[in-house]
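Reopening this ticket.

The earlier resolution said the output was attached, but the attachment link was broken on my side. Pasting everything inline this time so it's all in one place.
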Amino acid sequence: MEIEIISFGQITEFINNQKIEADGITDTDAFSKYIENRFPALKNLKYKLALNKNIVQHNTEITNQATIAIMPPFSGG
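Inline output:
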């Protein structure tokens, strides 16, 4: 499965925007485990995922050629 990763804020220091081939990743929980194993510094940070431009609130299915953004905490106002 091809997944495009986009990172923001301090996360860009160790995860560059890239496309990965990741078999066996079918949902956002599995993706989080995969990405934290690949980039251990992420384990110590709070972050949100957005799947195809939608912020993920719960475990969500990932389809081929998905785009996942990894974002540090943010606030608006």
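Reporter confirms the inline version is readable. The mean pLDDT is 92. Strands lie at 2-7, 18-21, 48-51, 54-55, 66-71.
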